[in-house]
Amino acid sequence: MAQTEKKGGLLRKSSASKKPLKEKVVLMYDEIFTTEDPSKCNPRFWEELFLMKVNLEYLEGKLEALDGEELMKIKDNINCLFQHCIQALGEEHPIRVVNALQTLCALIRGVHQKNKSTSGFDIINMLVGFDKAELCMKNLMESLDSLLCAEGSESLKSLCLKLLLCLVTVTDNISQNTILEYVMINSIFEAILQILSSPLSRREHGYDAVVLLALLVNYRKYESVNPYIVKLSIVDDEATLNGMGLVIAQALSEYNRQYKDKEEEHQTGFFSALTNMVGSMFIADADEKISVQTNEAILLALYEAVHLNRNFITVLAQSHPEMGLMTTPTSPVPMTPVTPLGTTPPSSDVISSAELPLDADVQTSNLLITFLKYSSIVMQDTKDEHRLHSGKLCLIILTCIAEDQYANAFLHDDNMNFRVNLHRMPMRHRKKAADKNLPCRPLVCAVLDLMVEFIVTHMMKEFPMDLYVRCIQIVHKLLCYQKKCRVRLHYTWRELWSALINLLKFLMSNETVLLAKHNIFTLALMVVNLFNMFITYGDTFLPTPSSYDELYYEIIRMHQNFDNLYSMVLRLSTNAGQWKEPASKVTHALVNIRAIINHFNPKIESYAAVNHISQLSEDQVLEVVRSNYDTLTLKLQDGLDQYERYSEQHKEAAFFKELVRSISINVRKNLAFNTLSQELLLKEFSTIS
User: How far is the C-alpha of 52 from the C-alpha of 678, rounded, in Å?
Assistant: First the structure.
C-alpha cells in the first residue's frame, strides 16, 4: 500500500499518478477565496470550519499570493471570516476557540503582509470593514479579556496573548497601527495585571504579558493620552508589581546564566589551552566570540516600570535567592526561533516569592543586582548596534534610579549589603578578579564599579560619547545625593579618580580624531566638575579625612594631565573657532584644580630639597598636604550639586521610537508557526463533549 504524504495542505499517494487530494480545510479556504458566499451552498460552512485543524501556512500563503485588486474582490468573505472567528471565541467547545484564535492570527498576518506599504486603516477595512470595525473589535477585545481572566485552559490564554502580540506588531511602527486604537478603548490592562499577580499564570504567560504591556505603553505615547501609561503609573498592588519584577528578573537571569555558561565553555576549550601556552595576547579576540542575544523587549519593560511607576522602585530591592543558583521545576515551553534582538522568552519558569525559600547558604539577590550583572555583560561590547542600544537603555534605567530619592536610600543603606559579581572585560594589563574575594557592600558601590568599569574599558577609536556622558551623569547624581544626605560611603574612590583622569588623558591624546565627531569639551567639563564636587563638598561625604587627603594626592600626582588639559582648552578658547565657548568653560572650571597644583607643588619641592629626598613617598606627600591646607585659597563654584532631571519626551523620543520599532519587528518574527503549534492544544482538548 502506497504511503500517504502531506505537504502544503495537499494529500497525495507517493506512487500514484492521480491528482493530489486536498485537505478538507484547504478546500474550505479555497471557497472563502472566491467571490461567492461559501455558506450559500452549505449553511453549516462556518460551523464546520472551526472544527477543522487550522492550516496556518496555507491560509497566510493564499492571502500573500493575491494582489491588491484580487484581495478587494473577496473582501466581503474575509470580513465574514473575521466576524465568524470572533463569534467562535464565545463557543463552549475549546477546539473551536483554539481554531478561531489561530485563524485570526493567520488573517491578521496575511493581510498585513499584503498591505505593508499601506496604513492601518486599510488593514482594518480589509479585515472587518469600516462600518462594523468598532463593534467587531469591541467584541474581540472583550472575548480575549474574558479568556485571559477565566480559570480555564492555560493553552488558550497563551494563544490569546500570541494573538494580541500579533495584533500589536502588525506594523513595524506600532504608532501607525490604527488597530491599536481599539485596544486603547477596550483595555486589557487589568487582564495583564491578573496574569502577573497569579503565580501559576505568571509562570506560564508572564513573559508574553510583560512584553505586550511594554509595547502597548509605547503606542503614540507622545501624541495622545495612552490609558496604559496612565494605569501603569498608578499601580500600587504589591503582588502585581512583585510579579512583574520576578518575570523581568528571570529573563535577565537567564541571559546572565547563558553568558556565564558560554564563558566557561570558552575558557575550558582548545583555544583557551592555546592562549595559556602562548600568553594572553589573544585574550580580547577570544572573548569577542562570547555572544548571547540581548533582550531589549524585557529591558524596555523594566525601563517603563521604573520610569512610570514610583512604587516599582521598591521591587528593585526585593530580596530573593540568586536565581541562577536555584533549581526550579520547569514545564514545557514552546520553542521559539532566536532573533537578533533576542525577544525569545526565558527557558525556565518565573518563580513567585512564595516559592523562594531563603537559605542562609544561598547568595541573596534582587532585581537590581540581576540588572547590574546584565548591564555589565551588555556594556562590554558596544560595537554591535543591538548591544549599543541595550547599553544605552541600561544607562537610561540607571539614570532614572540615580534620580529617585527612595532608590538612593536603599542603594546607600549600610544594612543592605550584597556581593555583586559584575562581569569585567578581559584586559592584558589586569588580572581577573576572584569572585570569592568580593566584599559585601551597599548596592551603590556596585553601580559605581559598573561606571568605573565602563570608563576604563571603552577608550577606543569608535568612541561612544553618548554613553560616556550618561555614565558621568549617573556618578554625579549619586554624589549629589551623598552630599545632600551626608552619606559617607566607604568606597575605593581612588579607582574612580584614576579612571576619570585617564579619560581626560585619552581625550587630549585623541583631540584631532575625536573633535571631528564630538564636542569633547562637554565631557571634559563634566569630569572636571566631578573633581570640583569632591574638592568643594568632599569633606561632607568622603568616608574619612584621609580620603580627602588622598584626593589631593591624586590631583598632585597626576598634575601633568590637568596642566595639559589647561593648555589645550586655553589654546582653543583664545582662538575664534567653533570650540571657543565650550573650551573656555573648561578653562574656568579648572581654577580650583590649578590652585591646588600651584599651591602644593612648590611646597612638595621645598620639602624634598630641605630633607634631601629625590623622590617622596606617598606618606611624605600626604604629610605636606595636611600641613598646608590652611594657606590654600579656593573659589566657591555654584551649581556643582545641581543637575537637569531626565526627560524622555524632549531628548530620547527618537531613540525609543527606533528601539520599539526593532522590538516590534522581532516580536513578530518570534510568533513563528511553531509557537502557534496545535499539538499541545489538541492533546489538551482531545475530546469534544
Answer: 12
